C-alpha cells in the first residue's frame, strides 16, 4: 500500500529529518540529518559515518523513530510527520543506487566519504493543521504474508 499523496508530497518537499535512536548503553539520542526519499520503496536515505553516535546506535538497535517538520509561526500552520523505521547500512548495488539519488539532491555530499543508510519506513503519522486543526493522516507498511 502506497502512502497517502499528502504524506509523500510533504516528505519530498523537505530534506532534513530528526532521527531518534537508542545508544548501545540504552540511553536515547537524537540528531538532525539531510535525507532523500525513495517513494517506491518508502525509504529515506542518509549518510552517516560509523563513528557517529547514531550510526553506532543503528547498528545495535535498528528500530528507530524520527520526525520531519516545518517551523511555523502559528499553530494553524503546523505540518509534520512522525515515523518509525528500520535502519540498514546499504551495501553494493543498493548503496550505489542510493548514493546516486543522494548525490543528485546534495552534490556537496560527494566529499563526505560516509556509508549510506536506508530508513525503511514502517509507520507514519502526519499532522497537517492546514487541513483542519489536529488533522492526522496515517500510513502503516503492509507486512509480507
From TrEMBL:
Species this protein is from: Gilliamella bombicola
Entry superkingdom: Bacteria
SUPFAM superfamilies: FMN-binding split barrel
Protein's recorded name: Pyridoxamine 5'-phosphate oxidase putative domain-containing protein
InterPro entries associated with the record: Split_barrel_FMN-bd, UPF0306
Amino acid at each position: 500500500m502506497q502512502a497517502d499523496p499528502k504524506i509523500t508530497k510533504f516528505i519530498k518537499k523537505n530534506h532534513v529529518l530528526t532521527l531518534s535512536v537508542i545508544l548501545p548503553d540504552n540511553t536515547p539520542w537524537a540528531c538532525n540529518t539531510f535525507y532523500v526519499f525513495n517513494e517506491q520503496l518508502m525509504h529515506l536515505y542518509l549518510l552517516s559515518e560509523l563513528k557517529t553516535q547514531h550510526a553506532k546506535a543503528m547498528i545495535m538497535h535498528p528500530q528507530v523513530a524520527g520526525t520531519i517538520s516545518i517551523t511555523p509561526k502559528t499553530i494553524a500552520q503546523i505540518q509534520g510527520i512522525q515515523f518509525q523505521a528500520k535502519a540498514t547500512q546499504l551495501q553494493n548495488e543498493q548503496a550505489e543506487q542510493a548514493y546516486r539519488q543522494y548525490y543528485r539532491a546534495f552534490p556537496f555530499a560527494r566529499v563526505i566519504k560516509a556509508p549510506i543508510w536506508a530508513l525503511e519506513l514502517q509507520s507514519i503519522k502526519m499532522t497537517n493543521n492546514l487541513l483542519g486543526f489536529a488533522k492526522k493522516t496515517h500510513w502503516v507498511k503492509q507486512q509480507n504474508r
